[in-house]
């Protein structure tokens, strides 16, 4: 048998073994992680606020100074009851890190998922999915991936909670989702050629299966994350009704394309300080793995995700109204200050001053989660000789989501089991 034949047989056997392992593990994971049937929970009225819960009352006596667009000064108390709807592929992991740090600093109580890093997504959120949930327990922050289910969320968190989320241009989001989740969506396996994204957008209905496993990742994903039917006709009146419902519920809808301005609006909405908003960009892809959409592909992606495009256009308008109300000059000053402080922290914390590819990350604790079949997500190396004053903050700002969740006491055994399966597939 020639060398080429041996390699072909080895490749075939490897594929068969991995296929059987993947199938078995997917069935096991489904059985273990599938949410239980509807659980009847005791109905206890949620408190108006958890801000003065004895566990952290002393931390909440600090008031911040706020300046409005007219230059007037007012005193406000930082808000600690926050619901962040973590949408997919929108820079939300970076926001999560900010919320984790703020919650830790003020000893707040998080509503975390149990055994995994999301609330049994894509199933609609249920209170029973919350780790250590008991009726009447005061939770301050909920921020992990979920499919939004407003009635259940409202029965968990205080009445005075500030609801926040973030959106992304749907064409760019679709490109990112296609590359990140594509291998987990079986209908993409039959798309021919090297450039599957372009091929799909030419004739999406030739390949798309609305009932297919994980198909929601590749059609109006934002609308789906909000808990609505992503297969609705874009001209259905219920689309506009749903968008209005989102506006009524969420006090702030941020835009990833204007991330720093979004954080300043978040600071204003929550009466936080700029120091609470410092960030390093987490979970970003390396540039060579990003498909640049030409005008035709962009138009096709927006047409395919037309509901998400309507959603984005609506909140793009409300976003800039909030910026105008904040004051353009004031916004420019605060954004410049945030950038200066971020640059200062990057110089202190990051080896080389920038993100690196996965193979160049020296510390396992700094390795971000990677998609199946590739190592496209960048991470960081932390400098060795950081002063005691900054060492703790540097590590927290650089820590990827899963590691931070573990540090906060979440047992991610299902997520880690899936990680072992992923590593086998990447073998």
From TrEMBL:
Chain ranges passing through the membrane: none
GO biological process: galactosylceramide biosynthetic process; myelination
Keyword Glycoprotein belongs to the record: yes
Keyword terms: Glycoprotein, Golgi apparatus, Membrane, Signal-anchor, Transferase, Transmembrane, Transmembrane helix
A Pfam family of this chain: Gal-3-0_sulfotr
Entry annotated with the keyword Metal-binding: no
MF annotations from Gene Ontology: galactosylceramide sulfotransferase activity
InterPro entries reported for this sequence: Gal-3-0_sulfotransfrase, P-loop_NTPase
SUPFAM superfamilies recorded: P-loop containing nucleoside triphosphate hydrolases
Subcellular location: Golgi apparatus membrane
Main subcellular location of this protein, as a coarse class: Golgi
Protein origin, superkingdom: Eukaryota
Family per similarity comment: Belongs to the galactose-3-O-sulfotransferase family.
Descriptive protein name: Galactose-3-O-sulfotransferase 1a
